[in-house]
Amino acid sequence: MRRRPIAKLCPLSRCPDPYGPRSRDSRRALIRAMPQEPEGQAGSSRDSRRSLPTDLVASMDRHVRSWCVKSVPPRLIPPCLPTPSQKPPNGSAWVHEIKHDGYRLIARRDGKRVRLFTRRGYDWSGKYPRIVDSLLSLRVRSIIVDGEAVWAGTDGKSHFDQLHSRAHDDQVFLYAFDMLELNGEDYRQYPLEKRKAKLEKILARTQGMRFSGHLDGDGETIFQHACRMGLEGIVSKRRDFPYRSGRTKSWVKIKNPGSAAVLRIQDGSWYGAIHQSIILDERAQIRPI
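The structure corresponding to this sequence follows.
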């Protein structure tokens, strides 16, 4: 059983601390290093702060910032995985998205550095230049986007064979359907609708990343339309839920039994071969985090 990565937590609060954990000894040292005021004298806190070492003041400032804004862990965030289902849910609490046939990626930009993480934690940023350039063109300091890397024809439908062939890597783009972080703020805590509304505005002028919208209405009707169009299926999501890594029941996927993706799985020999080649491609060409 694989253990999930644990975000570093600030010992003085329960929010993630991107500057690393502070041990009990280091906290005691921090307290001992603070100048103590003589009894009966009420010195100003500003004077006490000036008497502290510079590196100690900087460490305290980092702690204060971590209390104010909930930040994200510095490494890979495992993606949210939808629960398979035979029929879509109904009700106004659910929205429905088209399920695209491609590679799931967590796209992360921090300053001028871009990484495209696969589900196994490998960096594919050297593989899809169009997605990387699109991330760098955004007017943000940092951002984390969840989406599907696809190759699509003129009809807008994704084609997995062309994607897997590696002959069209420069044409692959990202269907972005969720945002986990923006400029240091953890967006996973917000409802899906708020995350998607913000993401749509940010991606309004990009080419290598396309916003994947959602549909309101009867889930079964939307699913039947997706099947008639030959799409892989739909993913139904709770509009009011936060983002949670791992398998969750707030995301439900319903696959079209006649889609190319499902037929690949049914053809066990072909599916096994291509699945193994994807794993080898990750390990051989792309560096792990």
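The chain has two domains: 1-34+41-71, 80-285.
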